[in-house]
Amino acid sequence: MNRTSARLAAIAESATLAVDAKAKALQAKGENVIGFGAGEPDFPTPANIVEAAIRACSDPKMHKYSPAAGLPALREAIAAKTLRDSGFECQASQVLVTNGGKHAVFTAFAALCDPGDEVICPAPYWTTYPEAITLAGGVPVVVQTDETTGFKVTVEQLDAALTPRTKVLLFVSPDNPSGAIYTPAEVEAIGRWAVEKGVWVLTDEIYEHLVYGDDKFVSMPTVVPELANQCVIVNGVAKTYAMTGWRVGWMIGPPDVMKAAINFQSHSTSNVTNVAQVAALEAVSGDLSAVSMMREAFQRRAITMHRMLNDIPGVEAIQPQGAFYCYPNVKGLLGKPLGPNGTVCNSTLELADAILGEAKVAFVPGEAFGTPGYARFSFAMADADMEEGIRRIHQWVTA
What does the alpha-carbon distance between residue 34 and residue 383 come to, in Å, rounded to a whole number? Predict the structure, then answer.
């Protein structure tokens, strides 16, 4: 008899967290490792947000249970922030505050999927999406993209993936890991396709404020208003406000779906930590000046990393349009002797291990995102460390 359920035994470890943990373990042993693994801003949480949390710690009301769906003031503020930032209007009753954006993703799929329902999942995808779909009883239907299409799925590809069991389309822009952003026209075309086909859309907007150059974020239910009744939005404070450890996200959807999701959370986690909710309230209610500063730094690093990666023989990267990742094609490094030891790597999994072991640089191989032959490099890190890490890889490749 199996000691663990088949459902949980089938879950793959989070590749991004595993790479980050491996790098930190080597660092703890005194190794000078540079880690490009975790997607985590290197900036501290803005001081006004921290101060709001400190005040909340001294408030006896924050020491007690609060509504499972979230503090009423925070739900109101999230609805107002969503209207302000994306033009999508919703009621506070349509907002569920979750334990981070990852929890919002899982809850959304749990609310939408029955066993056997198919979810169209464009690749490359964030490592958690297929696992969350499967845990909810759904079936991920992977649609491949690559750099020739800017890592963006087309309506024609969606048509080809559509079956009678298709329930949901997962849509992410800006995208993790590719950094791709869909144009407003592309977002509208996909939204109208979903309305025509009767397919739900789960749109992850966690990187909405991390957009560079002339590119623009648009929310699908804003440009296709008739989609609102078959669309769920997930978001959170982690990336925009450098609050990854505070664990506050949210889910927005039609009233019937949100009632089910809130009931589910009432039995699974109850309320998100009150102090963190108060911090999130300060974040979403305040201005975006700190966000603007961080975005400028990320844009500068995106340009530098893109240039340095393309200078490495055998590596080809497209310019990131948003988020804080480069996702280069590294197939030119496979199957040939590399490094001072002449190491031959036949996959990006092997390449990642070799570079970590020999050059002391950690990145996440493309297998984790459904696209072998690629690699994800986060530039949410100090400029000097980022540049040193890419230099080490260049030197290792050309040794």
Answer: 12
